[in-house]
């Protein structure tokens, strides 16, 4: 199970992206309820952006169909292994994704991959952008994570 921190991170980032994409008619944002089928592989990213140019005129097929996402976003869960994360990363690029974001609630970072080996790491004070895919989108990395639990709050919980 991914857990509350994972889910709230997905919701915060998904909300920011959906508002931006919708306001500019750039395409749409999808959750893991939409399966992207490429060949024999099914992919269920935590969030996916599909540009308007890739969506067929009659709309997105039920379940996602054989459409490639432009941006795949994986929020790392506490039980994800390094091998699992690398396999997901490779699968997204093999299927045709332009970018993959690996979001780490534990480290409070976002790794933006433009290939399986080329990436940059953004920390809380950095600005999350993707001008080629999401023109004009920007949000501070810290905005997608909940407030860190203070020592006082931890003491009150226990």
Q: Oligomerization state of this entry? A: single chain
Mean pLDDT value: 84
CATH class annotation: Alpha Beta
The shape, in one word, is globular
* DSSP strand content: 25-35%
Q: What is the terminal separation in angstroms?
A: 23 Å
Sketch the topology as an H/E string, one letter per element.
HEEEEEHEEEEEH
Indicate how many domains the architecture comprises. Answer: 1
Helices and strands in order:
Layout: H1 4-23, E1 27-30, E2 36-38, E3 41-43, E4 47-51, E5 71-75, H2 82-94, E6 99-104, E7 109-113, E8 119-122, E9 127-129, E10 138-140, H3 151-157
Parallel strand pairs: 5-6
Antiparallel strand pairs: 1-4, 2-3, 4-5, 6-7, 7-8, 9-10
3D architecture notes:
Helix content is 25%, strand content 26%. With 158 residues, it is an alpha+beta fold. The chain is built from three helices and ten strands, in the order αβββββαβββββα. The longest helix has 20 residues, at 4-23. It has helices at 4-23, 82-94, 151-157; strands spanning 27-30, 36-38, 41-43, 47-51, 71-75, 99-104, 109-113, 119-122, 127-129, 138-140. The protein has a single domain, classed as tt1808, chain A (Alpha-Beta Complex), CATH 3.90.1570.10. The protein starts with a helix and ends with a helix. It has a six-stranded mixed sheet, with helices on both faces. Strands 2-3 form a two-stranded antiparallel sheet. Strands 9-10 form a two-stranded antiparallel sheet.
Quick summary of this structure?
It is built from three helices and ten strands.
Key phrases:
six-stranded mixed beta sheet, 25% helix, 158 residues, two-stranded antiparallel ribbon, tt1808, chain A, alpha+beta, 3 helices
